[in-house]
Design goal:
heterotrimer, A alpha/beta (365), B alpha+beta (427), C alpha/beta (325), B: 427 residues, Dihydrolipoamide Transferase, Chloramphenicol Acetyltransferase, four-stranded antiparallel sheet, elongated, C: alpha/beta, 2 domains, seven-stranded mixed sheet, 12 helices, 20% strand, globular
């Protein structure tokens, strides 16, 4: 698709499937093979299992704070599927599917949410940056990665994520401006899930769309239905093609809805109505793609239970591995501060070790 | 086995939750992830899922009741997994790491200040620090090393600050009689003020310290003394021979270096005499070095500089050092280092005239050796009475550390060395 | 009198200042409808309306910068940085603007803004949610930095901060938000910023701490007392200005001092307190002044916190070593 042809101010998102999984475009040609679609659906199911199990582990006291992905699986799985090995990903926090498909292991994800810092090495995944918690701080990094890609003469692109709330931060604006001025191959996906913790998006911005922000920096922008896997995939593919060909950055606003809480420490009942939540339930991305596949007669929902059972076992195995991973040691606190430990840090570590040795007879709490 | 599941901190620092609704009861079979109970916390209302498969054997708390984080929620009968001990309650998944709910210890007493718009209370003029003197940290360190109580020292520095030299002077003064003799001390007068027939003089701080130290020694150590003598004509000859050679090097050779050398040999034969007792910890501290204090009579009183590592020095070195220390003592130029770390003491009252003395130990050392006047007297040699040169020696030891038997053997040992000095250099 | 947690006490203080001064506005991320992620401002929007208690867009620098302008028009902004770890987004506005308006305009304008931010570790949260970087703000000329450790102090100090004429960075130890309770007066009262609190009098050693570490310091002090060490426990409460005379007076009495805080050691608040000790009590020292602080490392994720946050046992150990020095 010609991404530059879209109007970022258009409030109606680019959409292919309606909530019932029916194609709404008149002259639509299926851009993905059946098997690719089935693969995508399975990945979304898998992400959903991971998500529900993660929440459960957290409630069992076996994991710390976790940000649920429920309802946002389509856009993260689509993002994961369009990235090539040589492409870069600069994550935000709520696109677990994309991480997983980039090569981040479940065990690492669990370790991260179990408060173990080794997790963010992302040992099996290449060209992915670690999570940075302060909102929007990753976007300038992504612009810089884009500059590096150009500098090295690579054909790669860089994909980054941000929430609707993050678009209010200065970092977001500064980064988009840099990216456009430098004309770097950066695709920024705004996950507009309608809430920044408790703040609804209409209180976050007075702009009609978030895609509109692209206009002021001079790059294409498009609003897409982020719960529509196929539309999402097309927009991402088009954007990546555009960027890969050296045309510069693209801003994508993917409309979705955070069906769960901001994190396991949050209770959405305090700031939104149940009616609103129910309104979004039928627009769920998993159901939508399933309906489409069933319509096409290429998916039998009765097979899902067994599939899910297998996923859950696999996820639980990875969780148990994370649980049994050696705990964070004193060395781990110091080891990654500098290339070589300066004398101050060496002394601080030694002093603490001496204390531990001196009191070794008495059991430490 | 029974598994107790504690209510976990599910929300970044929450400390308690209210039971909204039980989803299980005793006897319910649960699988991992099945909801156990709906809880309401400050942050969320949520189901708490089971961490294990099993059968509920106990639930803690009724609906509407408040449960603290880390308190038991349910007890589940589970099958023990590999490596699980059946009786271990701590294996609960309830908490990972530490958490800090408001337990009973965490109720703070009501705040004292901030009562509404009350003017600040006037600060008390009485500074609690007045009991403490000002002293430089280096002075405090010297005081600690020397066992001097800083607060008793009068400072001569700016604003009455106690300096290093104040500590040293105070210490010097206090040491002047620590190795002194009991005999010859006049009983103190009980008079309150000067009259026609008495004269009252306030004790100098030096005298006060001496008094305190002497008292401390006699109260802390169990003094016993023994007395003996030996014929030392070999030593007399030896000294005569070397006196001239030494005098060419400007060294005045007395008997004392030989006595120190003999003493160190005897101490190394009986190391317990070179120890001190640490009663608080029920142990003896053996010194692996031989620093011998020598009592020097000066105009200001008796002082006891230390000759260090006597075992590693030869007679000429010892002789030079004694002379140097004695000179410095008379000029009051001894420094802290000259007094520190003595392990045994020798007092040579004989140089003034006494034959026997009952010396007081330089506490916490184990003993003190008194050297009496060397004199000629009839001695029996090979069944004949001849004129011999005799050295009278007194030894006072701390009976807490060592008994009479060892003391006598030690004495014999010492006497053997002085009577046959060659042994010192051969054995 | 009512038993309150620190969250409740701060909420109570906010209610009092919103009531007594109609120029007070309270805003930040999620502080309005939700009442703050820690529920510190719960119920205040309902009571005082959206005009005075409101949610801002997600932008810390914007929050701090707009407060400067509001203050210029006579408003009294109380703003919240959701976590101190996110306040660095607003660093420029806080250290280049909030702190300097009075000086820059030669007293014509002021920026008496109260910047609230939860800080410190111990709640098992991800990166940036657990650090103690109060020293950054304490080092900036023109800012007051206050850190309470009890519900009572939190309320009194916050009220004083809002009533005052100067910018105050008010850091709240989230580890203590709910983990201590105290009987406190429900009516208004204030505690002057800049006065330390002598929590416990003693004669052998002065233990100085503040904020989150006070919980461990209190426990350590109790344990030490039982071991026969008479501890004078001081909560400095105000990092800047620092109550140097109370510190000096105490150490002149005890001759020994241990400072405990959670943030990094080098150039940390401990260094400032110990310099004060040198200035005020040099000639009374019986042992080297000592600090026990966090490492010069990033505040670790939950699993590493075990190594990072000092236990009462460790504090007792250090107290003993100093007393036996």
């Amino acid at each position: 698709m010609d991404i530059a042809a879209y109007d970022p101010l258009n409030e109606t998102p680019y959409q292919i499937l309606d909530a019932q999984g029916k194609v709404i475009l008149d002259h639509w040609e299926q851009s993905l093979s059946d098997s690719e679609l089935i693969e995508a659906f399975k990945n979304m199911l898998f992400v959903r299992q991971f998500d529900t199990m993660a929440i459960s582990y957290q409630r069992q006291g076996r994991m710390y704070t976790y940000p649920p992905n429920l309802g946002q699986e389509a856009l993260s799985v689509a993002s994961g599927s369009v990235l090539q090995k040589t492409d870069w990903m600069v994550p935000s926090v709520r696109e677990m599917g994309a991480w997983y498909m980039k090569g981040v292991s479940l065990k690492e994800l669990f370790l991260y949410y179990r408060g173990h810092e080794i997790a963010q090495r992302f040992e099996q995944a290449n060209r992915i940056m670690p999570i940075t918690v302060p909102i929007a701080s990753q976007i300038p990094h992504a612009a810089g990665v884009g500059y590096g890609i150009k500098f090295h003469g690579e054909k790669a692109v860089v994909l980054t994520f941000i929430g609707d709330g993050g678009t209010s931060e200065g970092d977001f604006h500064e980064a988009l401006n840099f990216a456009a001025v430098w004309k770097v191959p950066l695709i920024t996906v705004i996950q507009n899930n309608h809430y920044a913790i408790s703040l609804p998006v209409h209180k976050q911005t007075a702009s009609k769309t978030l895609a509109a922000k692209s206009l002021s920096y001079g790059m294409p922008g498009i609003r897409v239905d982020g719960n529509d896997y196929i539309a999402m995939h097309e927009v991402l593919s088009g954007s990546i093609d555009y960027a890969r060909q050296g045309n510069g950055p693209v801003l994508i606003e993917a409309l979705t809805y955070r069906r769960g809480a901001h994190t396991t420490s949050d209770d959405p009942k305090k700031y939104r109505t149940q009616e609103e939540e129910q309104e979004w339930e039928p627009k769920d991305p998993v159901n939508r793609l399933r309906s489409f596949l069933v319509h096409k007669n290429i998916w039998n929902p009765d097979e899902e239970a067994e599939l899910i059972e297998g996923y859950r076992k696999e996820i639980d195995t990875q969780f148990l591995e994370a649980e049994q991973y050696p705990p964070h040691s004193l060395d781990d606190v110091f080891a990654y501060m500098f290339s070589e430990l300066p004398p101050e840090l060496e002394a601080q570590k030694q002093e603490y070790q001496d204390y531990l040795n001196a009191t070794a007879q008495e059991p430490q709490k | 086995m029974k598994y107790v599941f504690n209510f976990p901190d599910i929300g970044e620092g929450i400390t308690e939750g209210v039971i909204v609704e039980w989803k299980v009861k005793v006897g319910s079979t649960v699988k991992t992830g099945d909801p156990l109970v709906e809880m309401e916390t400050d942050k969320v209302v949520t189901d708490i899922p089971s961490p294990r498969d099993g059968t509920i054997t106990k639930t803690f708390g009724k609906e509407g009741e408040t449960i603290d984080v880390d308190s038991p929620l349910v007890e589940i009968e589970i099958e023990a997994g590999p490596g699980e001990s059946p009786s271990d309650e701590e294996e609960s998944f309830g908490v990972v790491g530490t958490s800090a709910p408001a337990g009973k210890d965490d109720i703070l007493p009501a705040g004292k200040d901030g009562v509404r718009k009350q003017p600040e209370a006037n600060q008390s003029q009485e500074s609690p620090s007045q009991e403490k003197v000002k002293a430089t940290p280096v002075a405090r360190n010297y005081a600690k090393q020397l066992g001097v109580s800083v607060n008793k020292v009068t400072g001569t520095g700016p604003n009455g600050r106690v300096t290093k030299s104040d500590i040293l002077e105070y210490h010097n003064a206090s040491r002047q009689s620590t190795a002194g003799l009991k005999s010859g001390t006049a009983p103190a007068s009980g008079a309150q003020a000067s009259t026609e027939r008495t004269r009252v003089v306030q004790l100098s701080s030096t005298r006060k310290t001496i008094a305190k130290n002497m008292l401390n020694s006699t109260q802390s150590a169990a003094h016993i003394s023994l007395f003996d003598e030996t014929e030392i004509s070999q030593l007399v000859q030896l000294r005569e021979r070397y006196k001239h050679i030494f005098s060419e090097k400007n060294i005045h050779l007395t008997y004392l270096p030989f006595f120190l050398k003999a003493l160190v040999h005897a101490l190394s034969d009986y190391p317990v005499l070179n120890s001190e007792m640490d009663m608080e910890n029920n142990r003896l501290i053996y010194k692996e070095y031989y620093n011998i204090g020598i009592a020097v009579d000066t105009d200001e009183g008796l002082v006891v500089p230390v000759i260090r590592d006597v075992d590693t020095k030869d007679i000429s070195q010892i002789a030079m050092e004694i002379e140097e220390k004695a000179q410095k003592a008379r000029e009051r130029k001894l420094s802290l280092a000259d007094f520190k770390d003595g392990t045994f003491t020798v007092t040579s009252y004989g140089s003034i005239g006494g034959l026997w003395g009952n010396a007081i130990i330089n506490y916490p050392q184990a003993g003190i050796l008194g050297i009496g006047r060397i004199h000629q007297q009839p001695v029996v040699k090979n069944a004949e009475v001849t004129v011999g040169t005799v050295l009278p020696v007194s030894l006072t030891i701390d009976h807490r550390i060592v008994d009479g038997g060892i003391s006598s053997r030690f004495m014999n040992d010492f006497l053997a060395y002085v009577s046959s000095p060659v042994d010192m250099f051969i054995r | 009198m009512k038993n309150m947690t620190m969250v409740q006490a701060i909420n109570n203080a906010l209610e009092i200042v919103l009531t007594e001064n109609e120029k007070v506005v309270l805003y930040g991320e999620d502080v309005g409808v939700e009442g703050g992620v820690f529920r510190v401002s719960a119920g205040l929007q309902e009571k005082f309306g959206e005009k005075r208690v409101f949610d801002s867009p997600l932008a810390e620098s914007g929050i701090a910068g707009t407060a400067v302008g509001m203050a210029a028009t006579g408003l009294k902004p109380i703003i919240e940085m959701q976590f101190s770890g996110f306040s660095y987004h607003a660093f420029h506005q806080i250290i280049n603007q909030v702190s300097r308006i009075r000086n820059r305009s030669r007293g014509r304008h002021t920026a008496p803004i109260v910047i609230r931010m939860p800080y410190g570790g111990g709640i098992k949260a991800p990166e940036h949610h657990s650090e103690s970087m109060e020293v950054l703000y304490a080092a900036i000329p023109g800012l007051k930095v206050v850190i309470p450790s009890t519900p009572h102090d939190a309320k009194g100090l916050l009220i004083d901060a809002v009533r005052g004429e100067d910018p105050v960075v008010f850091m709240e130890p989230k580890r203590l938000y709910r983990s201590v309770k105290q009987e406190i007066q429900e009516e208004e009262y204030s505690i002057p910023i800049g006065k330390a609190s002598v929590v416990q009098e003693g004669s052998d050693i002065t233990l100085i701490s503040y904020g989150a570490s006070m919980k461990e310091a209190r426990k350590a002090s109790d344990t030490a007392q039982k071991k026969g060490i008479s501890v004078e426990l001081i909560d400095i409460r105000s990092i800047y200005p620092l109550d140097r005379s109370t510190i000096g007076e105490s150490v002149r009495k005890t001759g020994r001092v241990l400072v405990v805080h959670e943030g990094p050691e080098s150039y940390g608040p401990g260094a400032e307190v110990l310099t004060t000790v040198i200035d005020e009590a040099f000639l009374y020292l019986e042992a080297p002044p000592r600090r026990l602080s966090g490492f010069d490392t990033i505040a670790p994720y939950p699993q590493g916190e075990e190594w990072y946050i000092h236990t009462p046992e460790r504090i007792v150990y250090e107290l003993q070593r100093l007393v036996e020095y």
